[in-house]
């Protein structure tokens, strides 16, 4: 492979984008390449397998083995491209009209490329007093499910650091908080019958409709009387239904209907009481209808992030970014999990814009990529002067 000392950040990004690491698929080839890159720099690398074959997390360290280092973190997976009207090959980094197009360019292989440049910069520093750590995860895009095995491994080994930067695209603004998320499925079971005599059946879609009304009522309570944080664009927790599937034919009373919904919860809000309330309402609805049964299943969940405004690590990052105050964001990251597992302050800060993520013709500007390199190199400078 080409020496890591010879690759500019744009070429690194091109290499990363060429790996089609769609969520729920293997990322082994990308991890192999990144690990080889890092080992050539002298990094200590530790690979942690995921639950599924061919999916891995990678943790690497450069510098002394001390507890005062900084973690730079990125996920390796990207969202699918099927059905999107791309005008370029999504897995070939393409420069056009002053933009660098490719799936993951902003979310978040752009920052992953910057991380590898940071590792190269750290390896070149003879006076590194604290370590630089790199964390690369899988399957973040489906509910932050892949990073757990790496964080459990680090926690079991007693890993410590002064803080972590999650490089999701924030326009290089220092972000100290985001909401948590819980995604769940409600499966309503009824009894099939001919539509000419619907009373002989139990309409599962009707059950599902009633559960949707319950969710809407809880949402209204969260909005009107729940906890608030005016730092967020939507300053309260939310619940919303995003998918309903049910019925076989118009002349059959449906015996099954599925509803999927999500909660977006302010940091510190426990989803369990809300789930318990839905279960109580489900039991009530079933008690009123013979043959009715309702199941509620959590699909995935991750906690919100709240790094206190007086965090010294947060202020170190803000000194680099020039922010006078930290921001909050509406989308989720792995940051809350890093904070919970490893008890460390976490700041979300990376190049690019989330507004370009998950869309056709995703791009990052060359200047944003270079600004990202400058940012991570200044983080490394913190470790030189620790």
TrEMBL record:
Pfam families per record: M20_dimer, Peptidase_M20
The species this protein was found in: Acetobacter aceti
InterPro entries: AcOrn-deacetyl, ArgE/DapE_CS, Bact_exopeptidase_dim_dom, Peptidase_M20, Peptidase_M20_dimer, Peptidase_M20A
Keywords, sorted A to Z: Amino-acid biosynthesis, Arginine biosynthesis, Cobalt, Cytoplasm, Hydrolase, Metal-binding, Zinc
PROSITE patterns, per database record: ARGE_DAPE_CPG2_2
Cofactor or coenzyme needed: Zn(2+)
GO biological process, one term: L-arginine biosynthetic process
Molecular function (Gene Ontology), one example: acetylornithine deacetylase activity
Similarity-based family: Belongs to the peptidase M20A family. ArgE subfamily.
PANTHER family: ACETYLORNITHINE DEACETYLASE (PTHR43808), N-ACETYL-L-CITRULLINE DEACETYLASE (PTHR43808:SF31)
NCBIfam families: AcOrn-deacetyl, PRK07522.1
Name the record gives this protein: Acetylornithine deacetylase
